[in-house]
Amino acid sequence: MATDSERNERMEKIVSLCKRKGFIFQSAEIYGGLNGCWDYGPLGAELKRNLRNYWWQKNVTERDDIVGLDGSILNHQDMLKASGHVGGFSDPMVDCRTCKARFRADQLGEAKCGEKPSKSPLENGCDLTEPREFNLMFQTWMGASRDETSVAYLRPETAQSIFVQFKNVCDQTGERVKIPFGIAQIGKAFRNEINPRNFTFRSREFEQMEIEYFCRAQDGLRLTDEWLETRIRFYEAIGIPRDKLHILDVPDGERAHYSSKTYDIEYDFPFGVQELEGVAYRTDHDLKAHSEAVGKPQEYIDQAAGEKFIPHVVEPSAGCDRTVLAILCEAYDEETITDEKGKEETRTVMRFDPKMAPIKCAVFPLLKNKPELVEQAKAIKAQLQPLMNVTYDETGAVGRRYRRQDEIGTPFCVTVDFDTIGENGPDLEGTVTVRERDSMAQERVKITELAGYLAERLR
Fold it and tell me: Which of 7, 45, 52, 62 is the most exposed, fewest CB within 10 Å of its CB?
């Protein structure tokens, strides 16, 4: 069992690697940083795109009962009044008169004192104000005037655009959608968090991967349990083992007001066990609220049974940024190895599942001053480029190049050497060395078979 100091040190190494290797940067860093906002660098953008694409593939492309939506980020104020966000979406906030920091009143035990970060405000005896409500939504105005009629909000969640487009989706997709069915969406959401923390875990701008799965009332609880297992298997498929996941059956009194059953899927981050995803049974709360607000029934029509009803909803809602962070934390590893000279060294390796790895393959010429090797290596890169994200590296010794690729999680490295071009005889001509990241094992593969060899292992 790792100590708190060891877990903190591990998290610091992960954050450092993310900046050093181009996974994640502080937003507007040269201006001092924009608190609670993050920019994904070249490798981070690829990692996040791989996650989004795989989520969409498994939940929309490969299923006949779920369709997609891409809703507007700007939200109508009346829509958010009906959903309960305007007037009800807030957190209790306190200020410290001593260190001038601001905290959520319900999370004081987890917060860090502005004067003594090793202690919480409660442990340090901070002089705190009385709690007051703090609205979490970002408000803006649309059009030339700034009055009550022009108020809009950056959406605090992706769910509401799905609910208000429910009838349109039903009307336009016809026979494609029959209860039970879902509408999926990936998109940005915004919350003016009082205390952003734990790197990208709690941010003011974040991305959700969300499904609203519409069903009959009698099926809601059963489908909630089924979706919980489906989502756990998804995390296993992207490299997060089941034994690192924790399921919290949220008790009565702690669930959102609309929920009659909620499971939180949590992950064991270095900074503690925290939520990755909620699987909530929202009943018919949302569609009913919007029906009442606009005076138009948001009903599902079952033509075969000759009935109309407002469906109930099961919502698996995952945090994209949180999942990326979990993938990074799970992948990070250090091990002691012996180099070719018999000297021990520490190898830092990101053990990404190949589906998630930002770069799938690196291609090297053994020597950069040997034109035949360089030409062949660049030809192989061009051959693989339409099939996967591949990089080329000719700088430094091959061993150092391997270490660089290990540190960013590249599953395979391909080296073009003298055997490839037949200088050591005809036996291995037209073959390359393929080195696997985790085991560091090497294998000779024919260039003509290389694309298929890699594609099979990347799956």
Answer: 62
